[in-house]
Amino acid sequence: MVKKSEVLRILIITGLSGAGKTQTVNCLEDIGYYCVDNLPPALLTKFVELGVQSEGKIDQVALVIDARGGDFFHDLSRALGELEQENIQYEILFLEASDEVLVRRFKESRRKHPLSGRWRLLEAIQIEKTMLEELRGQANVVIDTSATTSRELREKLISLYAEEAINGFSINVVSFGYKMGIPLDSDLVIDVRFLPNPFYDPIMKTMTGMDQEVKDFVLDSAVTRAFNRRFMGLLKYLIPHYIKEGKTNLALSIGCTGGQHRSVVLAEYIAKQLMNMGYSVLVKHRDNARSKLEE
């Protein structure tokens, strides 16, 4: 028996072969769903039970169940009935496209239709439609991808299944020292070597940007205040456009000479501002421990 869950969101993805289920799974993974492709329907209730028992470690699951299951696909109706008997809520997303578009996609990709072993392509599409007709009627959302670009499909999915678009976007803020090289995975690199340098103060030389005295020295500078105001304004402008374009992660690298003082202070400050704006932020100080006080 499946214990009722108040926190586990269950999304069943189904629909016509070639209608965009693979792209859908990729998008849902990016916004935090635990995805399983081509799940045998007989395992649906067992998988939901495992999700419930995870005690919140898994709170969103997306399960692709479609005609590839062959004879096992017919077990889906019974499996859904079992969930309903246990008062387990679920959603069904059904993807479809016109016959002409589906035929063209299979021709272009040179992939076989799951039912093409016994029928020609167009016949297989029609038979699959018949198989899925009842399930389509149960769907919470039906998306026709005939005239939908990958970007448009992604935007639609984010609007439907991310609590907020912002929650599907994460930012990694990394401080580094130029002497050790720029982080290879950087999207944006900011050079803060123009800021006042605590290294030349005998007391602060042995400290890091995590020490309050260093923070005050760097942040109280008029140059730093002006920079922070302008740079945060730039990020407020850029990030929503990154999200709109479908980007799910931003790697922001902030560098000074040794990665010990200024970059650490600025990384902490910027990360805090971004968190206050509601973004998911991870901060890492790559060279803080190994700068050897050489800034």
What does this structure look like?
This protein has 295 residues and is of the alpha/beta class. The chain folds into 2 domains: 9-163, P-loop containing nucleotide triphosphate hydrolases (Rossmann fold), CATH 3.40.50; 167-285, no CATH class. It is 40% helix and 17% strand. It is built from 9 helices and 9 strands. It has helices spanning 21-30, 44-53, 76-85, 99-109, 121-138, 150-161, 212-219, 222-244, 262-276; strands spanning 9-15, 34-36, 60-64, 91-96, 141-144, 170-177, 188-191, 249-256, 280-285. A 5-stranded parallel beta sheet has the order 2-3-1-4-5, with helices on both faces. The protein has a 4-stranded parallel beta sheet with strand order 7-8-6-9, covered by helices on one side. Strand 2, helix 2 (44-53) and strand 3 form a beta-alpha-beta unit. Helix 1 packs across helix 6. The longest helix is centred in the C-terminal third of the chain and has 23 residues, at 222-244. The radius of gyration is 26 Å and the shape is elongated. Residues 291-295 have low confidence and may be disordered.
N-to-C order of helices and strands: EHEHEHEHHEHEEHHEHE
Radius of gyration: 26 Å
Q: Helices and strands: which structural class?
A: alpha/beta
- Alpha-carbon distance between the two ends: 62 Å
Strand order, sheet with most strands:
2-3-1-4-5
